Amino acid sequence: MSRTLPFCLFIIVSLQGCGTLSPDECQTMDWYTVGLQDGLQGRTSRPAVDFHKACAKPLDVTVQIAEYGRGRDQGLNQFCSARNGFGLGSKGVHYNGVCPGDAQQEFLAAYKQGKEIFDSELQIRRLAEILHVNRSQLRTLTATAQRKEAEMAAHDTASKRRAVLLEEMGDLQETVAMVETEISGIEAALEEENRHLQNLRESVR
Questions:
Q1: I need a surface site. Which of 15, 95, 101, 104 has the fewest CB within 10 A?
Q2: Average pLDDT over the chain, rounded to whole?
Q3: CB count in 10 Å sphere of residue 19
Q4: Do residues 129 and 112 lie in contact, with contact meaning Cβ atoms separated by under 8 Å?
Q5: Other CB atoms closer than 10 Å to residue 107's CB: what's the count?
Q6: From CA 46, how far away is CA 38, in angstroms rounded?
Q7: Which of 36, 35, 39 lies closest to 76 in space, CA to CA?
């Protein structure tokens, strides 16, 4: 067997191809392990044409396909557990719909529980980021307003300049009020989402 075959095996598993294998390499390739890895990773079953592409033609790949299928079935037995479904869902990993029959029903129930937690955590992070931006904007507006107030109060500020500053202060106050309203709404949404996340976590204990 070629010294580069282990690397080639991983490339085949990822469907990127290693070029065409020789008949000897195709016969000695551990197709059971290839199938096992596909099953463990929850990958969809590759069609027979992939074996013909990987193996030099003409070659009967019936044995290779059977070994691949046997390995994949074994991998799916481990992949399709409820525990794994919950773990994948809680990480936001995409599910390819590969689990068979009753195993899929149990897997999906756990996957959806995990996915709800993932989605809630993601929403909390998004709200927190928006809240951070709004609070930063409010600090900037407040600092600007303070500078304008100090300039208005200064004895050497001309009356025309005070009139301009007064108008600018009015606009600033409106903007501050809008940002404060947005912050209040985001804080309320964040608090509600945190309660929702807590309930989700308690429901799976």
A1: 101
A2: 86
A3: 9
A4: no
A5: 27
A6: 9
A7: 39
62-76 pLDDT, tens digit per residue, is 777 888 899 999 999
Q: Decide if 86 contacts 48 (C-beta within 8 A).
A: no
C-beta neighbour count of 121 within 10 angstroms? 16
CA-to-CA distance for 21 and 28, rounded, in angstroms?
10
Q: Which two tokens stand for residue 5?
A: 């075959």
Q: Which of 101, 98, 100 is nearest to 88 (CA)?
A: 98
* Amino acid, single-letter form, for residue 50: D
This prediction's pTM: 0.76
The DSSP code sequence of 115-142 is HHHHHHHHHHHHHHHHHHHHHHHHHHHH
Between 140 and 50, the higher pLDDT residue: 140
Dump pLDDT digits (tens) for 177-203: 999 999 999 999 999 999 999 999 999
Give residues with Cβ within 8 angstroms of 130, minimum separation 6.
Answer: 186
Q: Which of 40, 41, 32 is nearest to 9 (CA)?
A: 32
CB count in 10 Å sphere of residue 28: 13
